[in-house]
Amino acid sequence: MKQGKIPKHLHFEEPSPHIDWDRLPVQVTSELTDWPSHPNRPPRAGVSAFGISGTNAHVVVEGYDSPDTTPVGSAQPVSLSVVDPPDEEEAFALRQTRLLPLSGKSDEALRDLTGRYLSWLDALASEDVDLLADMAWTAGVGRSHFDHRAGIVFQDVESLREKLQALSETGERPELRATTKIAFAYTGQGSQWIGMGKDLYESEPVVRAVLDRCDKVLREERNTSLLDAMFGQTGDLSDLPAIYAMESALAALWSSVGIQPSVVVGHGIGEIAAAQAAGVFSLEDGLRVALEWDTGNLEATLTDVTIASPSLVLVSSVTGGVEVLDAAYWRRQAQEPAAFDKCAKKLVNLGVNVLIEIGPNAVPGPIAGDANPPVVLSSLGDNGFIEAVAKAYEAGLSVSFPGLFAGETRRRISLPSYPFQRQHYWIQ
């Protein structure tokens, strides 16, 4: 099909006289034949297998476009997984970093697949970054994801080749642990810095949607811009609303790639963002509480906002337990110190085995001292959010890869096939 040729039928010499060949639209190819072209439909073929001991299988295959075109799928816009997406005409920066997910059913298969991608790179006619983005898209949404995994974070052909080469030379990788419960841990006040999240705001529609909503509240109620302060353009960066907004945006970004918590915990102002993730506060009401968290106006604010029951487990930073989250609790939460040890024990008892730190700066995992500590991931580590997603993928979490391409137009392309580890099953 790729060559546009139908091969000569094996061992065929004379057609059967019992078949009315003139009446049936059927032909046995007695010679190598050009594949007939039909402008209104792609090429199709049936492949049959009739084997020993009852094997009876049939596969229908369909070709792409025509034999003289590049083997790619049609362009596909990637939808935005946000409630209030930005304006369609709003411009976003091109994502500079990509994730190539590779997996196999064994370490040997993973290494063989890595070698195939290295050969694929060597055969590239150009170093088009858009083609590399299509490669990452195809590998994410068009391949199965097995237990032996590697997440390759890269910026260009050279960085991709370097990391693939390093992966091909590594020994056996640790076996995946079953990931049954994910917790989000939200950092507290003092973790902010000027310019935090600016790259995500410029390139990620989900982050922009959340931060724009928070900025709108501050403009309406305080006549000041949260974004201008966060990105160092004007005004002072108040840690409380900035941290709350950034953490809410990061939680939404994780959700866009299919990773959501079943448990949340927060330190200081981070517990307000944790409560928002649990559905206790709306995004706007949580911001209003964060604005007044350490002021004399907290009482009035708590009276004006809606406080709902949490939709998932929220571990109290005050008691380390699960509390009734009424106005009285939040007054107490703003005044009392955090009980880190109790929170750690509670997370252990809840069976948390993946801890994702949500906030501008990473903090030590609250259950790092446990005998069987969880995998700890930082949302904004040295290489940013996509590096954290790569580590989440390697840890065995199910990643929704379209979230890494929101707002883009991507197409599937021809990539290296899976390196099956061949075994013989001949009947002796």
How would you characterize the overall build of this protein?
The radius of gyration is 28 Å and the shape is elongated. α7 packs antiparallel against α9 (283-291). β3 and β4 form a beta hairpin. The chain starts with a strand and ends in an 18-residue tail after the last strand. Mean pLDDT is 88; it is low at 66-70. Helix content is 33%, strand content 13%. It has helices at residues 107-122, 129-141, 157-168, 198-203, 205-222, 226-230, 239-256, 270-277, 283-291, 298-304, 327-335, 340-349, 385-394; strands spanning 5-6, 33-34, 44-50, 56-62, 76-77, 98-104, 148-154, 182-186, 263-266, 313-315, 354-358, 375-378, 409-410. It is of the alpha/beta class. It is built from 13 helices and 13 strands. The strands form 5 sheets. A 5-stranded parallel beta sheet has the order 10-9-8-11-12, with helices on both faces. A two-stranded antiparallel sheet has the order 1-2. Strands 3-4 form a two-stranded antiparallel ribbon.
Strands, count = 13
Mean pLDDT value:
88
Question: Rg, please?
Answer: 28 Å
Query: What order do the helices and strands follow?
Result: EEEEEEHHEHEHHHHEHHHEHHEEHE
Question: Largest sheet, described in full?
Answer: 5 strands, parallel
What proportion of the residues form beta strands (DSSP E)?
5-15%
Percentage of helical residues?
Answer: 25-40%
Large-scale geometry: elongated
Low-pLDDT residue intervals, each spanning 5 or more residues: 66-70
Coarse structural class: alpha/beta
Q: How large is the count of helical segments?
A: 13
Strand order of the largest sheet: 10-9-8-11-12
What is the end-to-end distance?
35 Å
